[in-house]
């Protein structure tokens, strides 16, 4: 059987002369990442790091923030999510909005758009496209908050009092719903039926993807040995790629670009999202030699591919061997996964998606915005 193209190609990315590389996974510290994001934001003329700040500083969420302080001292995930909005400098929470704005500027005004509409552009971007970028971030943030709901049946004494954990779940539901409601209101105000349909379907994809992800994310039993790369990509696209891909397409629709431009924007968002997720999944395996033991999800790409290669029976044996006093030794398991081809398959697939993302936007005019998009796509292939 002939291997897929992405398995046979070396990890190469498009050459971009005289352009600075935007590293999504910089090893030189938060200050460098902040500068990278700041440089990209200057291109679109919009501080995306505070894109959803208007909603987050509303009276309703200010009250929620005060209540969340009651969770200090517990292990409720909502606390980490809240800290991420302020301190996250490595996997910037606003990257989706930034990509939507960069694509909007890279594509420019449509030939079919009226001159009157073009007069509303600021830094080469329509106001409706900026609103769309904010809506995309609100939806993403809402689902991040909703992911902070914990299974009360699995709590231990060190997690915190049951009453506080129940309260944290209520806050996660209410604040996530509030953000999602604001996003839907903004979506309706765009007055574009096709955009409403696109983003609504992306929300549906998110729900389906997260449900599937939660169903499969059991260490011992739920992931079967039949999950191959195609199945992993399909599931991951729903939970991590559909929102950005369809938001990029919607940005082209708002500017009245043709079907081809919409399709290319969709492809860029899709491949960038999958490449970004693969890079994130690979971090514990490519950095495991640095002396720091990193836990990882059993739905991470290298693990899924490894299980598919070795089969369920051998995987169960390897899990048993990696346990010490019923505690899983992640360093042993990392070495086990790296002993087969799961990691190299994930690396090759990551490079493939990075290259496909760059390829998708070559039809757009050469510009600072397109160069930034190319650099971002190239950066997800760096480890």
Fraction in beta strands = under 5%
Low-confidence runs: 13-33, 86-93, 219-225
Could you tell me the number of beta strands?
A: 2
Question: In one word, what is the shape?
Answer: globular
For the largest beta sheet, what order do the strands appear in spatially? Answer: 1-2
Biggest pleated-sheet summary: 2 strands, antiparallel
Which structural class fits the helix and strand makeup?
Answer: mainly alpha
H/E element sequence:
HHHHHHHHHHHHHHEEHHH
Total DSSP helices: 17
Average pLDDT taken over every residue: 76
| Helix percentage range | 55-70%
Distance between the termini: 30 Å
State Rg.
21 Å
Short description:
The chain is an all-alpha fold and about 375 residues long. It has helices at about 5-10, 30-45, 55, 60-70, 75-85, 95-105, 115-120, 125-145, 160-190, 195-215, 230-255, 260-285, 300-310, 310-320, 330-340, 340-360, 370-380; strands spanning about 325, 325-330.
List keywords for this structure.
mainly alpha; two-stranded antiparallel sheet; 17 helices; 2 strands
Task: Record the SSE blueprint.
Layout: H1 5-8, H2 30-44, H3 53-56, H4 59-68, H5 77-87, H6 95-107, H7 115-118, H8 127-146, H9 162-188, H10 193-216, H11 229-254, H12 259-286, H13 301-310, H14 312-321, E1 323-324, E2 327-328, H15 330-338, H16 342-360, H17 368-379
Antiparallel strand pairs: 1-2
Descriptive notes:
- The protein is mostly helical and 383 residues long.
- The protein is built from 17 helices and two strands.
- It has helices at residues 5-8, 30-44, 53-56, 59-68, 77-87, 95-107, 115-118, 127-146, 162-188, 193-216, 229-254, 259-286, 301-310, 312-321, 330-338, 342-360, 368-379; strands at residues 323-324, 327-328.
- Strands 1-2 form a two-stranded antiparallel ribbon.
- A hairpin with a 2-residue loop joins strand 1 and strand 2 (327-328).
- Helix 4 packs antiparallel against helix 9, helix 6 (95-107) crosses helix 11 and helix 11 crosses helix 12 (259-286).
- The radius of gyration is 21 Å and the shape is globular.
């Amino acid at each position: 059987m002939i291997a897929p193209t992405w398995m046979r190609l070396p990890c190469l990315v498009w050459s971009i002369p005289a352009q600075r590389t935007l590293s999504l996974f910089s090893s030189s510290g938060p200050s460098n990442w902040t500068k990278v994001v700041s440089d990209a934001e200057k291109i679109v003329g919009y501080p995306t790091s505070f894109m959803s700040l208007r909603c987050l500083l509303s009276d309703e969420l200010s009250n929620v923030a005060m209540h969340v302080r009651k969770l200090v001292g517990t292990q409720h995930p909502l606390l980490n999510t809240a800290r991420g909005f302020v301190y996250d400098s490595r996997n910037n929470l606003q990257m989706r909005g930034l990509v939507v704005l960069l694509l909007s500027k890279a594509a420019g005004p449509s030939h079919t758009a009226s001159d009157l509409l073009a007069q509303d552009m600021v830094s080469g971007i329509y106001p409706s496209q900026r609103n769309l970028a904010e809506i995309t971030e609100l939806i993403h943030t809402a689902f991040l908050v909703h992911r902070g709901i914990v299974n009360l049946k699995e709590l231990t004494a060190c997690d915190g009092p049951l009453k506080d954990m129940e309260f944290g779940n209520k806050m996660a539901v209410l604040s996530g719903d509030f953000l999602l409601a604001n996003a839907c209101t903004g979506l309706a105000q765009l007055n574009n039926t096709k955009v409403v349909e696109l983003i609504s379907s992306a929300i549906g994809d998110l729900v389906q993807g997260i449900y599937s992800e939660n169903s499969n994310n059991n260490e011992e039993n739920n992931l079967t040995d039949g999950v191959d790369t195609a199945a992993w990509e399909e599931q991951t696209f729903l939970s991590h790629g559909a929102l950005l891909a369809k938001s990029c397409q919607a940005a082209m629709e708002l500017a009245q670009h043709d079907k081809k431009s919409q399709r290319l924007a969709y492809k860029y968002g899709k491949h960038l999202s999958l490449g970004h997720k693969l890079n994130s999944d690979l971090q514990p395996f490519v950095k495991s030699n640095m002396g720091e033991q990193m836990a990882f999800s059993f739905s991470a790409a290298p693990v899924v591919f490894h299980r598919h290669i070795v089969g369920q029976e051998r995987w169960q044996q390897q899990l048993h061997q990696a346990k010490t006093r019923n505690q899983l030794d992640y360093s042993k398991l990392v070495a086990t996964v790296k002993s087969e081809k799961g990691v190299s398959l994930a690396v090759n697939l990551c490079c493939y998606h990075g290259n496909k993302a760059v390829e998708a936007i070559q039809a757009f005019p050469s510009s600072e915005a397109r160069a930034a998009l190319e650099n971002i796509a190239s950066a997800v292939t760096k480890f």
